[in-house]
Amino acid sequence: MTEPLLSIRDLTVRVGKHPEAPSILDRVSLDLMPGETLGLVGESGSGKSTLGMSVLRLNSPRLAAGTTGQILWQGRDVQKMSARQLRRIRGEEISMILQDPMASLNPVQSIGVQLREALRRSGKRNLSAAAEAALAEVNIPSPADRLRAYPHQMSGGMRQRIVSAIGLAQDPNLLICDEPTTALDATIQYQFLELLAALRAAHDMAMLFITHDFGVVARICDRVAVMYAGRIVETGPVAEIFARPAHPYTRALLASVPSTRHAPRRLPVIEGQPPAVGNRPRGCPFHPRCAAATDQCQSVPPRAEIRPGHVLDCWHPQEIAHDPA
Amino acid sequence: MTRDLSFKLALGLLVVFVLVALFGPYLLEHDPLRGSLRARLDPPAWAEGGSAEHLLGTDRLGRDVLARIVQGARISLAVCLVVIAIAGSIGTALGTFSGYVGGWVDRVLMRLVDLALSLPVILLALLFAAVVGPSFLNIVIVISMVLWSQYARMSRGETLRVKNEDYVDLARTSGLGHVAIIFRHVLPNIAPSLIVVATLQVGVVIVLEASLSFLGVGVPPPNPSWGGMVAEGRSYIVTAWWVSALPGIAIVLVVMAVNVVGDALTDRINPGLRGRGA
Amino acid sequence: MLKHLAGRLAEALVALVLMSLVIFLLSRVIGDPVALLLSDSATEADRQLLIQQLGLDRPMWQQYFTFLGNALQGDFGQSVTAGREDALELVLSRLPASLSLAGVALAFTLVLGILLGVLAAITRGTLADLAVRMLALLGQSAPSFWLGIMLIYVFAVHLGWLPTSGFGGPAYYVLPALTLGLFTLAAITRLVRASMLEALSSEYVKLARIKGLSEWSVVLRHALGNSLIPVVTFMGTFFATMITGAVVVETVFAWPGIGRLAYESIMARDFPVIQTVVLVITAFFILANLIVDLLYLAIDPRMRAAG
């Protein structure tokens, strides 16, 4: 069996050092194999972005101080790395595409400067040629001219492609995508996903794809992990989860996605709001909103592998297959 | 945590300032205007040659510095209140009107505000004060002339924001008149931002008043304005530092407290203003 | 962009004309130039003659246009004090002292303010940050006339390190420049700290970190550039603060600049000089704002595209 590329073990992120401080992530564990694309799905506030940031230690000092558990990159603990070691990982081995293409480019520097800055670290000789090639790879027309342009002169879709060119400049083994399509128009979203899929194949890399959209997951991911209130509640291969979602929350999420072929005709709405950080219920975090909840759900649910690769944290797994009609 | 502590300290200091200004003069035995020629330039109690009779020493006419600082607090407070009332109501009226009416009226009025902000107003103030002569009324008018434009700009921007809100539309469609809308819906909603401006301006008013008094065109002597006291003590700085230093410290403390409170209010009420206190 | 600049220029001219009108009205309506010019022993005939000579018997608007026309030709009249110097020459002769002082103050203020602001931002929450913030708070709260006197007392009178006042070599600049600059120093420090903190938590700084850049590159190449934009925006205000401050500071330090000239002429009701000083200062004011506009263009590419 191959070693996982990234292995997260019991990652807990609290707001500050205090052991009783409210937690954003609560004992999260997941593995990512080389070349695999894992979708991380959850509502906003579920902690999925914090998880992505934690891998590169990009969280604010307060969150960093409240981080426990292990993040193993090819067997080495990212948490214990020196600043210098960490910098070697960033960009070269793990890279990231951020959510907001409008904000993630430096407004006062030209595209070329920002791109070459990343290319330089990978030891490329002819930086200008490399920069043009990098823009061409992400389908930017007339790349030579675009290198002299500034971010404000470009559309959101184009900026996001440039951000991915910067992310890929050092040919990383893992690309973390934090809701890269959320800020884009619907038509451009699809194009961009196609591009990402092509880039993943060309660069032979793994991807951690953070999103709130199961439709996106269906398109690009191999496996999916569903997050709710700082915990991963269900993990499994995409086809398996779509066919047999077992966690009530996953079922509700899937049901509320009209764009997937798997959606039922009637859209059941999940009652209530996800709990705020610091106000999360005991036991299973979903039980106050769950139709199947019982008193048992007040205590932490057991973890079980109900089918090969399909792991679930729930007292009352939903046995009936999800109606694909 | 330090932020909260400094806010409480500053607020406490301001309360003390207001209380001293209101009641201080009745509690002190010394007359701030009458001196004793035998007690000229007496040092403060803790310095060599000082006595408990005059805790903060005396000035060149033998007047008690503490009594004068206390009386000065009253003058500073009075100037602040009157200026903020005048500049605030003129500026708010113009700004709200401008923002509410819009169109060319708005453009003309805002150009005027830009102009007012781009002129070296201290010179105008000095000129005006010099021409009409120093008096309480004049200094209040002069400082108000300088400061109204900030209220105008703020209230105009806030009115623009508020006037497109749903509740204003609702009020309009339900047949409420313009004046009623402004008084019932616009003003209450822009008030918090105006309070922030007013707070941040208290410090500006105190320093401006003190500066003009220092230059001899502010509150006329023998009334003890803090700025005027610093000016009077200037000639004796070598032998009697306290006459200048102590009223200045009073200014610094009050202005510092106002700035801390103003910053805290800005953070809470209108974070967009942050860093604009320059 | 050119259109924008032209607009600013037109606005500047309007400001100048408006200022001249205000000064003219103040001097004619409120002040009485005749009473100032005549000696106590003058007769009513002397008085009428002078009124005629000065053109004060003509309608106000005529007088204003005569004043404006003369001013455009560089004729601002003569000082009414004993010297009877040419007003414009007098003002221009005082200009170098003021400009050099303001220049020194602005330079040290900018360098130190940016340095302290960045330091406070990257050491946020530590003792260094607290110290810088206290200094900034003090600087924004201490009135310059008092600060100047205290600095003179400590460094000139008590320690004897620096001259008390007057104009001369570099040592003479230290205290006045410090007094003139402290408020602006505090303002710049606060501004840079705030905008630096904002930049450091921005997405583009995150992206720079994702690239694997060192913390120094992140701060200097990505955060600093952006956090200086608000400083440029406020440069006009800072310059205005310096001019305003110059009146007080030059008076405290007996500095032979236009600030003190303005004060002295106002006190002596020397209207030709007052008019000249105020107009010259206003012109500088406007010039400074135009320079700020140009600077803005240079630093922020977004502005170049915007009309």
Automatic annotation (TrEMBL), chain A:
Which top-level group of life is the source organism from?
Bacteria
Q: How does it sit in the membrane?
A: Peripheral membrane protein
Location(s), subcellular:
Cell inner membrane
Alphabetically, which GO biological process terms does the record hold? Answer: peptide transport; transmembrane transport
Q: Where does the signal peptide begin and end?
A: none
Segments forming domain ABC transporter: 6-254
An MF annotation (GO) of this entry? ATP binding
For this protein, the record's SMART domains field holds:
AAA
Q: Which Pfam families does the record match to this protein?
A: ABC_tran, oligo_HPY
The UniProt record lists the keyword ATP-binding: yes
UniProt lists the family membership as follows: Belongs to the ABC transporter superfamily.
Q: Which PANTHER family match?
A: DIPEPTIDE TRANSPORT ATP-BINDING PROTEIN DPPD, OLIGOPEPTIDE TRANSPORT ATP-BINDING PROTEIN APPD
Q: Report the protein name in the record.
A: ABC transporter ATP-binding protein
**From what organism does this protein derive?**
Pseudooceanicola antarcticus
From TrEMBL, chain B:
Is Thylakoid found in the keyword set?
no
What the entry lists under Pfam families is as follows: BPD_transp_1
Query: Which organism is the protein's source?
Result: Pseudooceanicola antarcticus
For this UniProt record, the keywords arranged alphabetically read as follows: Cell membrane, Membrane, Transmembrane, Transmembrane helix, Transport
This chain's protein is named ABC transporter permease
What region holds the ABC transmembrane type-1 domain?
A: 73-262
List the InterPro entries hit by this protein, alphabetically: BP-dependent_transpt_permease (IPR050366), MetI-like (IPR000515), MetI-like_sf (IPR035906)
Where are the bilayer-spanning segments? 6-28, 75-101, 121-148, 194-219, 239-261
Q: What is its main location?
A: membrane
GO BP terms: namely:
transmembrane transport
Q: What membrane topology does the annotation report for this chain?
A: Multi-pass membrane protein
Q: Where in the cell is it found?
A: Cell membrane
Does the keyword Transmembrane helix feature in the UniProt annotation? Answer: yes
Query: A Gene Ontology CC term for this entry?
Result: plasma membrane
UniProtKB/TrEMBL annotation, chain C:
Q: How does it sit in the membrane?
A: Multi-pass membrane protein
Q: Which PROSITE patterns match?
A: ABC_TM1 (PS50928)
Keyword check for Transmembrane: yes
Offer one example of a GO biological process linked to this entry: transmembrane transport
Listed under GO cellular component are:
plasma membrane
The residue ranges of the ABC transmembrane type-1 domain are: 95-296
Keywords (alphabetical) are: Cell membrane, Membrane, Transmembrane, Transmembrane helix, Transport
Instruction: Tell me where it resides.
Output: Cell membrane
| Taxonomic superkingdom | Bacteria
Query: Any stretches that span the bilayer, and where are they?
Result: 12-31, 99-122, 134-159, 171-192, 228-253, 273-299
Which Pfam families does the protein's record reference? Answer: BPD_transp_1 (PF00528), BPD_transp_1_N (PF19300)
Record's keyword annotation contains Cell membrane: yes
Q: Which PANTHER family match?
A: DIPEPTIDE TRANSPORT SYSTEM PERMEASE PROTEIN DPPB-RELATED (PTHR43163)
- Per the similarity annotation, which family is this? Belongs to the binding-protein-dependent transport system permease family.
Q: What is this protein called?
A: ABC transporter permease
Q: Which species is listed as the source?
A: Pseudooceanicola antarcticus
Q: What is the lineage of its organism?
A: Bacteria, Pseudomonadati, Pseudomonadota, Alphaproteobacteria, Rhodobacterales
